[in-house]
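Consider the following input, taken from an annotated entry for GABA permease (Purpureocillium lilacinum).
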Amino acid sequence: MEIASGKMPFFGAAIVSLAETNTCRRQSFFVGWTSIAGWLVVVTVQAYFGALFISAAAVVASSDAYQITPARTYGIYLAILTLTTAVNIWGNRILGKWNDCALYWSVLGVLVISIVLLVKADKNDAEFVFTSFRNETGWSDGVSWILGLLQSALSLIAFDVVLHMAEEMPDPARDSPRAMIYAILVGGVTGSAFIIVILFCLTDPETILATTTGMPIIEMVLQATKSRSAATILSFMLSICFVNGCNASITSASRLLFAMARDRGIVFHDYFSHIQHGLNVPVRTIVLCYGFNVCFGLLYLGPTVAFSAYVASVTIFLDISYAMPIVVLLIRGRDILNEHRGSQKAGLKMSKKLGLAVNVVAVVYLLVTSVPPKFFCFPIALPVTGSSMNYVSVVLGIFTVLVTLYWLVFGRSFRGPSFDIIPGLATGEGETHPDLHLNRDETSEKATVTRHE
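Applying the prediction step yields:
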């Protein structure tokens, strides 16, 4: 967050600004592709959760007559992908208001479901909620607790979404870190409160986990309210939260792909580094994101372990992309930040000691949980079987091999982050960034920026 307050608050600039000159291109390339991989999986996760909640609503509304199948769920998934892709292409002017409404809708959903459960459901006592520890994984209590962090980590990732829109913000150095802080605060407070509510109302976990809806939270609502109408409405309410999330995730992933194409980091980079005239969005990378998720969503129709490994990789990919700039900052020293303070007012600036402590804690957490072969790569239970094995390390290994091969073959063409002004937008009221020099090719609608040394 503090890095985002520097003079280069846009995609890929953090690692370029902080790293040594002889390694910054390589580090930027790997950070970029790790982040892209994470965000492409985020799109899949959001769309599939939306599809699962819609399927759960159909089961409840039909009194279990509707049968959930992978093919039907995939069809709903495609519908969500298509809708949100269309919004990203033709609804650029409403994206800001859409995302504002999405925030309020998510908070409203948490409040409504919490109130319904607290009023209607049977309750556990405070001892069960705050002191009881139930471990059925086969791991020790300590390892089991760390493995449980994966769900919490999943709910708090992707706060960097605002950085991928920094080039389209009036004051990114101020607003980007603030937005990330607010995202974590809102997500942390509402998530913690919601978990406490769930634990108080979780009186029959065996029945809830065996639900025909496929979504335990909907079974909880159904048991609490004894009303299929209420459970259906609340299931649709939650599905809309994930549709909103998918919409924002496509925005983020497409900007990352566009930035990487602009920096010549993907195949056919000249084709994908294009802003559609009149729409002011990178239509081609939006469609690329759509195509990727249509194809990889097919994993849901195959073995469960394959899809689970693919989905589980999202937290690790994004955590690694967060860790790399922080590690570089720790190695080179926090004084390097002072060289990259721009003329814009920073949205976040910590003292040297506090910043160092925060950086160290962040890196230790990420090294313990996310860097293979650490805890988030462990199977969730012992003894390990073919179906319970965590194959996320395989996903990470395949990704690493492919990206490394691409770098070895085509890495020379990658030039590192440049700055692009999307037509109609800038870093200020009609001004470019004061520390950047703009070179625009009007015929190709491309723009690059070089730093003044």
